[in-house]
Specification:
Elements lengths: L2 E7 L3 E15 L4 E7 L4 E5 L2 E5 L3 H13 L7 E6 L4 H6 L7 E6 L2 H10 L12 E5 L2 H7 L5 E7 L13 H9 L1 E10 L7 H12 L4 E8 L7 E8 L9 H10 L5 H7 L10 E2 L2 E2 L4
Parallel strand pairs: 6-7, 6-9, 7-8, 9-10
Antiparallel strand pairs: 1-2, 2-3, 3-4, 4-5, 10-12, 11-12, 13-14
Helix pairs in contact: 4-5
Bound molecules: spermidine.
Length: 286
């Protein structure tokens, strides 16, 4: 029997999908994990009652967290992904033959296990020999790991509530900066630019205290509250619009959403947000 599943957004609005069955429901050490079967979105992964991804719309999010960064970073041999337990982000990263190694640091082993079992259309690159999955706290990893620096770091985390709050702090971002090469790029999801403009601004400001250049960019993710999402591109010196044409052309052939025009358009700041940003860039702290 079909029923509705709602994401309750700050107790002010609810966003729902009609589901036909609950494929999995359980509690890991860190969070409640649910997988729903739905008609509109296919299978949907929910963590702590917040929609994370779905078979139908995952490409918007995973292409946009990955390709604006990987088509512009000067070198993309060593990539670190923090979070992203459904496997969609590492799948996109591993489409680049230039990528030699991807380290994914995910705190919750059970999210990966459940995703492998129920969301196999999303995580299609688990067996790629370039991928190493470490089950650990990304915050500790960023602060303490003694490893060669990375060309790219992608943070594919949850909303800033509960255990994920630490992923939105200056000390964590300093850890990421420590692990990033001088000409590296750090990309991360930064919530809804419609409903959580203050959070987007705050993450941007926090990053701007560490990275000289921080740029917001935007795209659709239908299953997230408001349907409109944002990411931040943080770097010491890379130009986010200096797209490597060969890499972008390859992605354009295979992606469902991303292409070079979308890339340029994504970095255009809507009028209502212009006062937060200076020519498309987060203003540096005074
Ligand atoms: N509001 C939900 C934000 C979740 C962002 N991360 C999703 C993980 C998809 N790989």
């Amino acid at each position: 029997m079909a029923d509705w599943y709602d994401e309750n957004f700050h107790d002010k609005s609810r966003f729902g999908v009609k589901y036909t069955s609950v494929l999995f429901q359980g509690r890991s050490e860190f969070q409640e994990i649910t997988v729903l079967e739905t008609e509109t979105f296919g299978r949907v992964l929910v963590l702590d009652k917040v929609f994370m991804t779905s078979e139908f719309d995952e490409h918007f999010y995973h292409e946009m967290i990955t390709h604006p960064v990987l088509t512009t970073a000067p070198s993309i041999e060593r990539v670190l992904v923090i979070g992203g337990g459904d496997g969609g982000t590492v799948r996109e990263v591993l489409t680049y033959p230039e990528v030699q190694s991807v380290t994914m640091v995910e705190i919750d082993r059970q999210v990966v296990e459940v995703s492998k079992r129920y969301l196999s259309t999303i995580g299609t690159a688990w067996d790629d020999p370039r991928l190493q999955v470490i089950f650990a706290d990304g915050i500790d990893y960023a602060k303490k790991a003694e490893v060669e620096p990375y060309d790219v770091i992608l943070l594919d985390g949850c909303d800033p509530v509960g255990p994920a709050v630490g992923l939105f702090t200056e000390s964590f971002y300093r850890g990421c900066a420590r692990l990033l090469k001088e000409r590296g790029v750090f990309g991360l999801q930064s919530e809804s630019a419609v409903f959580q403009r203050d959070i987007l601004a705050q993450i941007g400001q926090t990053l701007a205290a560490i990275f000289p250049k921080v740029y917001p960019y935007f795209g659709p993710v239908p299953i997230y509250a408001s349907g409109s999402w944002s990411w931040l591109y943080a770097t010491r010196e890379v130009d986010p619009l200096a797209v490597n044409g060969e890499r972008a052309a390859r992605q354009e052939k295979r992606c469902k959403y991303y292409n070079a025009d979308i890339h340029r358009a994504a970095f255009v700041v809507p009028n209502a947000l212009r006062k937060l940003f200076d020519n498309g860039r987060v203003k540096s702290p005074a």
